[in-house]
């Protein structure tokens, strides 16, 4: 291929840059990977998608001599695009640890969650464009996808670099430009899809609408999208077969086109089948990430595992394989319950749980904890040691209180810990987000459990995704107006084509709720 259609990619191997690769190929370019510092100096255009932790990235860059090559490439004003950490590393230093490349004056600091803004900053937010930057022309008044806990702040010293800012508690630097050098804090490779023009100016962090695909093998061994009623995914027929609602890659592509802000896959039998033996699931991720340019989350079976030959796999290896195959976030269910129980019992963070290890290597923003609670009514809050709430409609025997019992293994086993206690513990252990299901509401179409979502979204300062029970678009506006949920997820209504994603977004827009302006 001619040099004109080649993008040089600096991937230092710290995480998933598959989506950046896919986006570059989608735009018709070939990719040349940087192997040596000379490859940087010889590039005709260089993309640097930073992933993982700041200090770890700098260590790799300086060990390989790529730091100097990068500085000289940028100082010569050669075509450059840094993404996320690829922007932050250009600054002098980071509170996340240590010095950066020092090309732009300023320190990268952590968002402050004490003023009510949830950290990490995850989701679709608007830019204030402060100077003509070329690459932002098509973005205009629309939303782009951010996911980060650290940010660079504007100052007099770096003002000349700034091409846009974004408001999230602080006004931080969303992009920089000087000559041919560009860098963005947001993820262009995850901000895909056409944006609807002329709908008014985007102004703040949008509420996300997420499509969820519960995936498992049917009795013939094919991976299918299934959907349960209160977690029971088998048809009420004589054959009792696994309910089949379609093919995972096709449906994910459809929801992307329909305007879903994210897509989640839950490998719902992962708790008993080893997911790395589940190669079809990895294939599903690979194929999906070629055409779906919004964040992908995958969950199911993330834990330490010894296979039948006695080979041991750490949860980190399992997660890494998911990330390599195209996931942007992984979600942990059962294993997070055990980790939280142990932490609450001992008060000690061992650093060894799957949750802690994966968030240390890939960052908090890449780790979701999926909670599968079941409502337990009580007459008197004093009857249990756990946090109870007054429920908005009483239980079958007139009980006015309830707690929410965590379960493991796809709802099959109840544990002695509540969703409230779990949420607070996993936040401390490094979770970046909570996917809050509710077994009672799952598949019922009667609305989200607003009591539960309120309880959990008020208890933590990480984003909470409300899940289970959506039946009509009004259920989404209800959960967003009555609780502090950052996102709402649904499955059944999308799979059965009762309510398309577009209808949910149009309804939210009409209700004055800020939404990510991606439409099909
Ligand atoms: O424990 O780490 O292996 O993770 C297993 C994962 O699989 C967990 O995230 C768990 O929630 C999920 N899971 C396990 N069994 C089931 C099941 O349904 N039998 N699915 C299951 C959970 C619940 C939702 C669903 C919403 C929305 N699915 O994610 O998509 O309730 O549904 P609706 O809109 O139709 O009401 P591990």
TrEMBL record:
Keyword presence, Metal-binding: no
Enzyme Commission designation: 3.5.1.2
Region called PRFAR binding, residue ranges: 333-334, 370-372, 442-443, 468-469, 491-492
Amino-acid positions noted as binding L-glutamine in the UniProt annotation, renumbered to this chain: 84
GO MF assignments: glutaminase activity; imidazoleglycerol-phosphate synthase activity; lyase activity
GO process annotations (BP): L-histidine biosynthetic process
Gene Ontology annotations for the cellular component aspect, listed alphabetically: chloroplast
CDD domains, per database record: GATase1_IGP_Synthase, HisF
Cell location: Plastid, Chloroplast
Binding site for substrate: 301, 437
Domain Glutamine amidotransferase: 9-197
Gene3D superfamilies: 3.40.50.880, Aldolase class I
Catalytic activity: L-glutamine + H2O = L-glutamate + NH4(+); 5-[(5-phospho-1-deoxy-D-ribulos-1-ylimino)methylamino]-1-(5-phospho-beta-D-ribosyl)imidazole-4-carboxamide + L-glutamine = D-erythro-1-(imidazol-4-yl)glycerol 3-phosphate + 5-amino-1-(5-phospho-beta-D-ribosyl)imidazole-4-carboxamide + L-glutamate + H(+)
Pathway: Amino-acid biosynthesis; L-histidine biosynthesis; L-histidine from 5-phospho-alpha-D-ribose 1-diphosphate: step 5/9
InterPro entries found in the cross-reference section: Aldolase_TIM, Class_I_gatase-like, GATASE, His_biosynth, HisF, IGPS_HisA/HisF, IGPS_HisHF, Imidazole-glycPsynth_HisH
Active site residues according to the UniProt entry: 84, 187, 189, 214, 372
Family statement drawn from the similarity comment of this UniProt entry: Belongs to the HisA/HisF family. In the C-terminal section; belongs to the HisA/HisF family.
PANTHER family in the record: IMIDAZOLE GLYCEROL PHOSPHATE SYNTHASE HISHF, IMIDAZOLE GLYCEROL PHOSPHATE SYNTHASE SUBUNIT HISF/H IGP SYNTHASE SUBUNIT HISF/H
Task of the protein: IGPS catalyzes the conversion of PRFAR and glutamine to IGP, AICAR and glutamate. The glutaminase domain produces the ammonia necessary for the cyclase domain to produce IGP and AICAR from PRFAR. The ammonia is channeled to the active site of the cyclase domain.
Protein name: Imidazole glycerol phosphate synthase hisHF
Primary gene name: HISN4
């Amino acid at each position: 291929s001619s040099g004109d259609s080649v993008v040089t990619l600096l991937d230092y191997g710290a995480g998933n840059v598959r989506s950046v690769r896919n986006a570059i190929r989608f735009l018709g370019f070939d990719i040349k990977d940087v192997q040596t510092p000379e490859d940087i100096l010889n590039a005709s255009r260089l993309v640097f998608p930073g992933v993982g932790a700041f200090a770890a990235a700098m260590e790799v860059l300086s060990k390989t001599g790529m730091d100097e090559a990068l500085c000289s490439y940028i100082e010569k004003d050669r075509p450059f695009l840094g993404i996320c950490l690829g922007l932050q590393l250009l600054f002098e230093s980071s509170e996340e640890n240590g010095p950066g490349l020092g090309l732009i004056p300023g320190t990268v600091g952590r968002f402050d969650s004490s003023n009510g803004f949830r950290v990490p900053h995850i989701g679709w937010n608007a830019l204030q464009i402060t100077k003509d930057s070329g690459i932002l022309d098509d973005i205009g008044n629309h939303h782009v996808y951010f996911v980060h806990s650290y940010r660079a702040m504007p100052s007099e010293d770096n003002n000349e670099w700034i091409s846009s800012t974004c408001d999230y508690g602080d006004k931080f630097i969303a992009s920089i430009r000087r000559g041919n050098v560009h860098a963005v804090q947001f993820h262009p490779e995850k901000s895909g899809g056409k944006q609807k023009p002329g709908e008014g100016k985007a102004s703040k962090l949008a509420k996300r609408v997420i499509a969820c695909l519960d995936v498992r093998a049917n009795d013939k061994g094919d991976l299918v999208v299934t959907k349960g009623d209160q977690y029971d995914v088998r048809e009420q027929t004589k054959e009792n077969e696994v309910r089949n609602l379609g093919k995972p890659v096709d449906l994910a592509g459809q929801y992307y086109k329909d305007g879903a802000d994210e897509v989640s896959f839950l490998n719902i039998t992962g708790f008993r089948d080893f997911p790395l033996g589940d190669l079809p699931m990895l294939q599903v991720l690979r194929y999906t990430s070629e055409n779906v340019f919004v964040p992908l989350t995958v969950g199911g079976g993330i834990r330490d595992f010894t296979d039948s030959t006695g080979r041991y796999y750490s949860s980190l290896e399992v997660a890494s394989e998911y990330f390599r195959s195209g996931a942007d976030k992984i979600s942990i269910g059962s294993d997070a319950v055990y980790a939280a129980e142990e932490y609450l019992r001992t008060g000690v963070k061992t650093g060894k749980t799957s949750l802690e290890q994966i968030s240390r290597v890939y960052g908090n923003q890449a780790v979701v904890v999926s909670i599968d609670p079941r409502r337990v009514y009580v007459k008197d809050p004093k009857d249990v040691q756990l946090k109870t709430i007054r429920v908005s409609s009483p239980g079958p025997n007139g009980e006015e209180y309830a707690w929410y019992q965590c379960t493991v293994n796809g709802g099959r086993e109840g544990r002695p810990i509540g969703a409230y206690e779990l949420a607070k513990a996993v936040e401390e252990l490094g979770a970046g987000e909570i996917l809050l299901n509710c077994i009672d509401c799952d598949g019922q179409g009667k609305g989200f459990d607003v009591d539960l979502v309120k309880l959990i979204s008020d208890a933590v300062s990480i984003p909470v995704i409300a899940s289970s029970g959506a039946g009509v678009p009004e259920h989404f506006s209800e959960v967003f107006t009555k609780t502090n949920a950052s996102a709402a997820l649904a499955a059944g209504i999308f799979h059965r084509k009762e309510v398309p994603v577009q209808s949910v977004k149009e309804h939210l827009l009409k209700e004055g709720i800020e939404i990510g302006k991606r439409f099909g």
